[in-house]
Design brief:
Blueprint (H helix, E strand, L loop, with lengths): L3 E6 L4 H12 L7 E3 L8 H4 L3 E6 L1 E2 L3 E2 L1 H13 L7 E7 L12 H11 L3 E3 L2 E2 L11 E2 L2 E2 L2 E3 L8 H16 L2
Parallel strand pairs: 1-2, 1-3, 3-6, 6-7, 6-11
Antiparallel strand pairs: 4-5, 8-10, 9-10
The structure holds flavin mononucleotide.
């Protein structure tokens, strides 16, 4: 069976909480769940898995969560190959205070890992979301699973279940 690793960056714990739910749903053991701040050393940590699920909230104005910054710089500089790796994305945002860059970090991760040869899966419909602009929106869909636990936490569970259903189908799990 394909191995799954979850890597997340989360400043106030929102993306972390969803990472733990994804891990439970996909039966990913705790030691295969990496907090980018504490557990990530280098890309070899990621290369151990066939399927990578990356969590990243959006900060600044459409920027990646702090713990993803250095790894993405290393990705740009060292240009490791992610060919043969399948990557799905998820991340928190706030559509009311930051609807001009809603969950845009997912778009950044999408482009950077696609450029390194990865296959990106797990896009999600934009239906039911409100925002002005998102760099994570491509051809009418988000490139990963966005959630907003600041304003609409009540919707996250059903959205997550729908995303996981689609993802499992795509991955043949
Ligand atoms: C200073 C600041 C900047 C933010 N910028 C964005 C943004 O550009 N886009 C967005 O969707 N959310 C933005 N947010 C909202 C965070 O993504 C949101 O609070 C999220 O729940 C944090 O998740 P985390 O705890 O996993 O890091 C911002 C929040 C703060 C405090």
């Amino acid at each position: 069976m394909a191995s799954i690793g979850i890597f997340y960056g989360s400043s106030s714990g929102v993306t972390k909480g969803v990472a733990e739910k994804i891990a439970a749903a996909l039966e990913v053991e705790d030691f295969n769940v990496f907090n980018m701040e504490e557990d990530f050393t280098d890309f070899d940590d990621m290369f151990a898995f066939d399927i990578l699920i990356f969590g990243c909230s959006t900060w600044g104005s459409g920027e990646v969560q702090n713990d993803w910054r250095d790894p993405l710089l290393d990705l740009d500089n060292d240009k490791p190959s992610f060919a043969g790796k399948t990557i799905a994305l998820f991340g928190a945002g706030d559509y009311k205070a930051h609807g001009e860059q809603f969950v845009s970090a997912l778009g950044i991760l999408h482009d950077k890992f696609k450029a390194r040869g990865a296959t990106l899966v797990g896009s999600f419909p934009t239906d039911g979301y409100t925002y002005t602009y998102s760099f994570a929106e491509r051809d009418g869909r988000f490139v990963g699973f966005p959630f907003d636990n600041i304003n609409e936490e009540d919707k996250t569970e059903a959205r997550l279940a729908a995303w996981l259903d689609g993802l499992k189908g795509e991955l043949g799990l």
